[in-house]
């Protein structure tokens, strides 16, 4: 599991990585500067070449080719990333996540207060 002192398997690596990526979306500006936009785009592209699960990285790169990352605002990027994560969910037979709720999951906490 995630708290064992052993090298991570694909699942543990994935959970930690999605946490990082969605958290980057959650703290990304609502109105990013041109340089913030180009930093995020560079990060996503480099990430897709360095992600240490090579089959995952290959599929993620081909997704990037089909769906250009939207870095114009926090909500644009959060929704794009949610779509990318749903693509992996589909491939693995996991349920689709409702992207209209990505900020509740990763930024504000759920409306019903269950994160308070
Ligand atoms: P995860 O999919 O890790 O999700 C963590 C949490 O995120 C969920 O509990 C849920 O609360 C939330 N969440 C779920 N979907 C969304 C969404 N669409 N938007 C926002 N939040 C969401 N594994 C493979 O076996 N093969 C692969 O090819 C593969 N490719 C991957 C590519 C990338 C770029 C990454 C980061 C991971 C990849 N993984 C792959 C790992 C896989 O996606 C999961 O992380 C892993 O299977 C653990 O799944 P999990 O059920 O714990 O939840």
């Amino acid at each position: 599991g995630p708290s064992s002192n052993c090298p991570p398997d694909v699942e543990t690596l994935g959970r930690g990585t999605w946490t990082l990526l969605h958290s980057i979306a959650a703290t990304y500006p609502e109105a990013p500067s041109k340089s913030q936009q180009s930093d995020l785009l560079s990060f996503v592209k480099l990430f897709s070449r360095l992600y240490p699960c090579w089959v995952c990285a290959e599929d993620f790169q081909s997704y990037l080719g089909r769906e250009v990352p939207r870095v114009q605002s926090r909500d644009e990027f959060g929704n794009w990333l949610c779509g990318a994560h749903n693509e992996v969910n589909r491939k693995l037979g996991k349920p689709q996540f409702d992207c209209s709720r990505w900020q509740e999951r990763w930024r504000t906490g759920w409306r019903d207060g269950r994160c308070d």
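The first helix runs from residue 10 to 27. The mean pLDDT is 96.
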